[in-house]
Description:
Layout: E1 2-4, H1 8-24, E2 31-39, E3 44-51, E4 58-59, H2 60-63, E5 64-69, E6 74-79, H3 85-95, E7 101-105, E8 108-112, E9 122-124, H4 126-141, E10 148-151, E11 157-163, H5 169-182
Parallel strand pairs: 1-2
Antiparallel strand pairs: 2-3, 3-11, 4-9, 5-6, 6-8, 7-8, 10-11
Amino acid sequence: MLVECYDERGAEVYDIIIKQIFQDLVLGASVDDLRAYVNPDDPVFVLAIKMRKTSNAVLFDEVANLNYDKQDDVTRIIIDNENYLPNILKRLWAQFSRDEIYQPNRYQIDIAGDQTDLKSLVIDDPHSNLQRRIYDAIFRILPEGFKIIKDLSTEDIVVVVATDELIKDDWIEKAHEYIKELNGEM
């Protein structure tokens, strides 16, 4: 982790703030590296965070069995992995009304019609979940009042430039330097 600031005391304070927020959000093990640039004279904050690799997205048919019963015109879902039940219900409720979903017991869900196309529905995406948690941390770290934000994130590096003024090109360049550093290109 590197916090750049012309004021050593300011850099130390932001180092402590970042570490505390990462500890509060239990992000330490999920992050490979971090770069921050703070300059109070030019009100700017550049933050680049490299995420660790996550497991692949979990699809519906990996955690449940779907069978269409033509006679009853019902798709019966049998839950194989109960840990994903809240995610399954959340996804189903987003696609169907709660009245269309019948759950006679904890391991079975019935939906009217042929819904076997749900097999490819993403139930859990660890990468986007981690990314969302990192954005939460970033918005806690950014100085209050820095409402102008440019997101320069890549696949596994979350990068933001924040200020309360117009964003300058050299700040964008600094963010791109951090991306290269975190990708091992420098």
